[in-house]
Amino acid sequence: GHDGAIYALERSERSGKFFSGGSDRLLTRWSLEGDEAPAALVNVGAIIYSIRLVPEKSLLLIGTSAGHLHVVDLVASREIRNLAHHQAGIFDIRYSIAHDRIYTAAGDGTVAFWRLSDFALVRSVRLCKEKVRSLALHPSGSELAAAAPVTRSYRVRGGDSLWTVAKASDTTVETLRRLNPRLASKDRKSTRLNSSHLGISYAVFCLK
Q: pLDDT digit string (tens) for 54-94?
């Protein structure tokens, strides 16, 4: 199915199927049942680093080594948008239907916020000079955590608050509250970050 390394996998909106992408620049759909051959759906023109399914809208979001975010319509089986903002590869993608947002983490040290409804760039936050490798979105959609080698606190424009936890091995809500007393009155009982990498810090966005 691929002529090169595979860097990203994602489930499909169809039962028994999944997507893959990698160094051959192809988005490929596979069948777990083996009832159909792997099918190359789209060539995005750059190495695929990340894939995220948005089943509520029948969309697939693809992050590439070129820093572009490609949007594929799964009903039409074609690319409908090619969004250029990041100056390096997109390593992770998350989304929130409730907040109408797409979040991308990239190798240029930034996290970008996009509107899911029209794919407009809302804001971009530079966390560090290194790569932002991973994102985690709270199930409520109210918090976004970004793993990056950052060691100081920031404030995000537009009222979104952001704080960092340096070299966390088992950071709990109590630690976060001590670092940011303004949030002490808010419920963060389900917030818990874990890392076995002592050189990685966590930047946590409180999303409005």
A: 999 999 999 999 999 999 999 998 999 999 999 999 999 99
Q: Are 108 and 121 within 8 A, CB to CB? A: no
Q: Which residues pair with 144 in a beta bridge?
A: 137, 205
- Picking from 161, 197, 192, the residue whose alpha carbon sits closest to that of residue 175 is 192
Q: What is the DSSP letter of 56?
A: G
Q: Return the exposure string of 66-75: e unless at least 16 CB atoms fall within 10 Å of the residue's CB, then b.
A: bbbbbbbebe
- Interacting residues of 156 by C-beta distance below 8 A, sequence separation 6+: 123, 125, 162, 205
CB atoms near residue 135 (< 10 Å)? 22
What does the alpha-carbon distance between residue 7 and residue 90 come to, in Å, rounded to a whole number? 12
Query: Phi first, then psi: what are they for 183, rounded to 5°?
Result: -95, 5
Better-scored residue on pLDDT, 121 or 40: 121
Nearest to 86 by CA among 71, 103, 108: 108
